[in-house]
Amino acid sequence: MVPDFDAIVVGGGFYGCLIAVDLARLGQRVLLVERERDLLLRASYNNQARIHQGYHYPRSFTTAVRSRESFERFVADFPGCVDQSFDKYYAVGRELSKVTAGYFETFCRRIGAPIEPAPRSIRALFSRDLIEEVFLTREYAFNADILRESCRMRLQTSGVDVRLATAAVEVEAASHGVRVTLRGAEGEEQVTGENLFHCTYSQINPLLRDSGLPVIPLKHELAELALVEVPAQLRPLGVTMMCGPFFSCMPFPSRGLHSLSHVRYTPHAAWFDGETVPTPPRFATEPSSVGLMIKDAARYMPLMGACRPMDSLYEVKTILPVSESDDSRPILFKRDWGLEGLHVVMGSKIDNIYDVLDEVRRLLSSRKAAA
Ligand SMILES: Cc1cc2nc3c(=O)[nH]c(=O)nc-3n(C[C@H](O)[C@H](O)[C@H](O)COP(=O)(O)OP(=O)(O)OC[C@H]3O[C@@H](n4cnc5c(N)ncnc54)[C@H](O)[C@@H]3O)c2cc1C
Question: Does the reported pTM lie above 0.90?
Fold first, then answer.
């Protein structure tokens, strides 16, 4: 029997949307299902909006080099979403930092990421006894609201069938591919697809578990991203302190505020999927850590003490266990995971999309060659 769709994509975040569009452009009949009432409402919105260009990964050369390459592609592909209106500085701490200023500068030059010493007026904003060096870099932010509209338009023009407020609750083998049970306002229905791409980020394992399929070891953190109004002098700036228990503060374009995160205070809780798949803590019950973030950031940059907390976004951040030790962000791509035709995808950061799309195309080519 011919399946209802060539491909079913579960999860309407940035990854699910772009995979669905790419498949449709290749001529496939594609269904995209998203549990929330709209696209890109979860991790693809609730994140720091940094378009990585490698600076963040001095301990993982491969991740840094891939980011460098993908940065230019993302900026060219999504120009309307990119905010370049600020200067981005990276500061290196004298104590607790896992890199020195000399190492950081050499590393950036090796990966070809622009770097130069910050002007004196900017260095004067930092505490000289705690900061070894400050560098001017080139890093941008994306506007997640505009990114959502860009995804929506691409889905429409490529003819993807999109169902919002619809959750995939179980996946099983079908005669030619995979059958998925969908639950929406109208009740439950089953649809079949030759391939199913499971792109639900922090929710990968609950669907696998509920389908009686093997779980993938993943680490999750309940993360708080504070949104703050920075003092006027800091408005045209983004600042990240490398590389240890420090802060990062940069424009968050979709709200016209700055995001503030802190390696120590942003994670509120951590848990692992392994033999069990624990239920995440409830976001609403978490007291904010923004006061601690501001207090610590102000030690390094006194003006940060004048930040006004406006809101906090809470989201589950999911990483592969390998990323714990080297802070790398490899993609997760599991072909035929427990079922032929079920492929599990997690991009780890926005710009990894290009590696994922290459992998999807390789998969289709190998299928075609085998047929
Ligand atoms: C705090 C934080 C900061 C980050 N900072 C950055 C950054 O600055 N730069 C960067 O590049 N990356 C960053 N990331 C990582 C980035 O956000 C993710 O890599 C990316 O958004 C993942 O996209 P996605 O589409 O896989 O996930 P999501 O956007 O979470 O999409 C998954 C979708 O699946 C849906 N879903 C779940 N279960 C089901 C189901 N059963 N049926 C149907 N739909 C379902 C969800 O509702 C969701 O919309 C950060 C992440 C976090 C959490």
Answer: yes
